[in-house]
Amino acid sequence: MSESTMSLWNRAQQLPPDDLRRVQGIYGEQFPIEVRHYLAVWIEDKMQQWNEIDPDNPSHTQYAQSLVSQLIQEIENKALSYANNEDLFLVRMRLDEAATSFRTRYLNSNPLGLVGIIRQCLNTEHNLVQQNENMLGGGVSHATNMVIEPCAEIEQELRILHERTRETANELRHLEQEQESFALQYHDCAKINAHLSHIQSQERTQQNREMEQSLRRRKELGEQQLAQKVSGLLQLRMALADKHKGTIDRLNSLQQRILDEELINWKRDQQMHGNGKPFNPNKLDQIQEWCEALAEIIWLNRHQIKECERHQTKIPIAPPGGVDMLPTLNSHITRLLSSLVTSTFIIEKQPPQVMKTNTRFTATVRLLVGGKLNVNMTPPQVRVSIISEAQANALLKNDQMNKGEQSGEILNNTGTMEYNQTSRQLSVSFRNMQLRKIKRAEKKGTESVMDEKFSLLFQSQFSVGGGELVFQVWTLSLPVVVIVHGNQEPHAWATVSWDNAFAEQGRIPFTVPEKVPWPQIADMLDTKFKAATGRGLTEDNLKFLAGKAFRNPQVQDFTNMMLSWSQFCKEPLSERNFTFWEWFFAVMKVTREHLRQQWNDGSIMGFVGRRQAEEMLKNSKSGTFLLRFSDSELGGVTIAWMYEDTTKACQRDVFMLQPFTSKAFAIRPLADVIADLNYLLYLYPNVPKDQAFGKYYTPLGEQQPTTNNGYVKPQLKTHVPGWSGDPMDSYPNTPQTMYGGMGGPPSVSSNPSDCVSTVPTYNECEYDQFLENLSEADFPDMNFDFLQTNFMKPQ
User: Which residues are in the SH2 domain (predicted)?
Assistant: First the structure.
């Protein structure tokens, strides 16, 4: 069979021994090598599907679930086909275990996670095969410098450490045997010495003299052999200590990589997820496997070192001037274990970063090595408290908190860790915590309560090794801003978003830079908007936002400009009473709640200024319109359109409707508003409006008045009072004289404060009363087509 037709798995099995071990190293509990081997043909037949699925795209979940379901079925069928083959009994058991594991851990809860693991394994396998084939075929020499996937490197190093641990275990057994042999020989020598002393004390007959000479020869020989044994034992001890030192050094390097790189990166990704960045929480399962392997290797080596110390105590021999390495090795490996345990007490599910008092919230804490170290045999308690920024600083400096020191009162703040046999996870989920009270620090200057950051402190204590080692562990949540009212939420999210995006690793809690380069701000805004609405921001959108944030839309390049925290969310925008962040947050909120579909299909331009909109529309045909976010109304969306009065020569102008807000869209959706206004014909640049918005129109049947418990459901239509082209004649009972019988389009100046209003002016009390009556009163004789769905509060 040629290489071009051989399967990837067959080619992988022909790799040199070192590369083949690397291939074996990429498969583990999460994706057993038996599944790869016995389902190789099926797995590779589905190669296109594996590659089509993006593990970080939640919209691919259903596709991934279907593929994982097929995989499980194939595994079960393969295992069943081996039911009558006794030689493959272990294989069948392994396949059954894999099918069960995939079903419980991935099928319904995280199919994308399993697809990601399989893709990673196949890609690494392919890279190794390609590298080897390039070398054999005289390919590009750069292939020899290919970097192995980080996961494969870690697995390979763990495999080496396991092998070293087995080797030192064998050497320790050999040392024990040699010590036993030495002890027996030493005992024999002692007997010879005792016998010799006895003979020497007897009458010196010929027989006794001969016996004495024989015993002296045996004594000399025994002492020579003992000296050789001592030398051998010392060499064995030193060689074993050196090997343990080498193992500990490798353990230290690998543990630093796993904890300081992989786990820290996971925590950083978790923090960025707070801003909406895609995040695969199941990467933690892989990290747990590595940490469990580390814990096992550390524990075995620590036990071996303690055994060496015990043997050394039984036969206390040491080379002249030699240094006993064992106490140092014991201390070092115990520190490694302590670091591993304390570092793997982590928050798997963070509490909400904007926390409202007297509101239920949840969090989950997990000990990654808890199952491997049998901590679950005496399940530890976890206690939660809330601490201030100053208290968090003191905790990091002193590694402990003063008893009872906290900054608030949390209900239901204790829980017991439980071990799940299926997932092999030791964790506790707090499902009903509630912050009752909060103690705030004194504010300085322009600081507000929404600038103040707290953190939840999770603490526990447990022992391992039958009480031999006791660990006090703690971990801090991501920064939390505490609010008491919903109107504090926007500013609170500004504080959290800035912290999540720009916190530096190893910082003093919870310091953040005062100024940040605009490209980093732009990335943060894009991430948040995409997470909230489903589609991110274009370069033009970001340029518009930069002009607004810096209060200077004329600048062409913002790349090297720094935006301050004050500009971001403290200082009001020019001629406005709200900040840049408040404006952006309101736009994001209205888009998420009411305009998500239209934003995702590109029907809403949104981030465009008034003057730019006028420039874009001035050369368009009459009836062309676009949708933009209002500069003056928080969360407002306005319709700008070109109108040409054919009854007057060259009478063309761009008009703006008074902005619609969430309250208006709750009464009548945007698409229906656009359908109501007949003079809106083309979405800019020239898309017929029915083509752009038709799929979002409310079906006619749902708009018809229906009786419900004796009430008549009103039908609402949007129209601009007095605007020609509105289909007022289709509603004969409409009071046309209500607005003074205006004909033709109203004159609208280019002043930003002048715009066409879709509603008459009411004060706030009248507005609220109107809404109440609209939903609760019976209007059998009134025609509702003059009522406006975007009925606005006074500006």
Answer: 599-700
Cα dihedral 588/592/597/600 (nearest 10):
40
Taking the C-alpha atoms of residue 222 and residue 696, their distance in angstroms, rounded to an integer, is 100
Measure the CA–CA gap between 604 and 608, rounded to whole angstroms.
10
Query: Burial letters for 701-734: b for 16+ Cβ neighbours within 10 Å, e otherwise?
Result: eeeeeeeeeeeeebebbbbbbbbebbebeebeeb
* Percent of residues, the chain, with pLDDT higher than 90: 47
> Is residue 404 within 8 Å of residue 398, measured between CB atoms?
no
Sign of CA dihedral 367, 370, 375, 377: positive
CB atoms within 10 A of CB 574: 9
Q: 610: how many CB neighbours lie within 10 A of its CB? A: 19
pLDDT tens digits, one per residue of 28-84 = 778 888 888 888 888 888 887 888 888 878 878 888 888 888 899 889 888 888 877
Gap between the Cα atoms of 514 and 498, Å rounded? 10
Give the closest residue to 106 by CA, choosing from 134, 75, 82.
Answer: 75
* Tokens at 233, concatenated: 């034992």
pLDDT in tens, 386-400: 999 999 998 988 877
Q: Which CATH class is domain 11-135?
A: mainly alpha
| Residue 146 φ then ψ, to 5° | -60, 135
Dmax of the chain from CA atoms?
Answer: 153
Kindly give, in sequence order, each residue whose CB lies less than 8 Å from that of residue 480, ignoring residues fewer than 6 positions away. 351, 352, 353, 354, 355, 386, 453, 454, 455, 456
DSSP secondary structure letter of residue 451 = G
Q: Which residues make Cβ contacts (< 8 Å) with residue 787, sequence separation at least 6? A: 714, 716, 717, 774
**DSSP run (H or E) holding 434:** strand 425-438
Q: Are 395 and 417 in contact (CB under 8 A)?
A: no
Options 3.30.70.270, 1.20.1050.20, 1.20.120.140, 1.20.140.10; which CATH number does 150-338 get? 1.20.1050.20
From 2.60.40.630, 3.40.190.10, 3.40.50.150, 2.30.40.10, which CATH number describes the 350-439+448-484 domain? 2.60.40.630
Spans of all domains in the chain: 11-135, 150-338, 350-439+448-484, 515-696
Average pLDDT, integer, range 84-95: 81
Fold of 515-696: SHC Adaptor Protein (3.30.505)
| 455 three-state secondary structure | strand
What pTM did the predictor assign? Answer: 0.71
Single out the residue of 185, 366, 195 nearest to residue 285, CA to CA: 366
Q: Hey, is 359 helix, strand or coil?
A: coil
Residue pair 498/454 in contact by the 8 Å Cβ criterion: no
Rounded CA-CA distance 427/434 in Å is 20
User: Sign of torsion, CA 638 639 640 645?
Assistant: negative
**CB atoms closer than 10 angstroms to residue 535:** 15
Q: How far apart are CA 558 and CA 546, in angstroms?
A: 7
Phi, psi at 516, each rounded to 5°: -135, 140
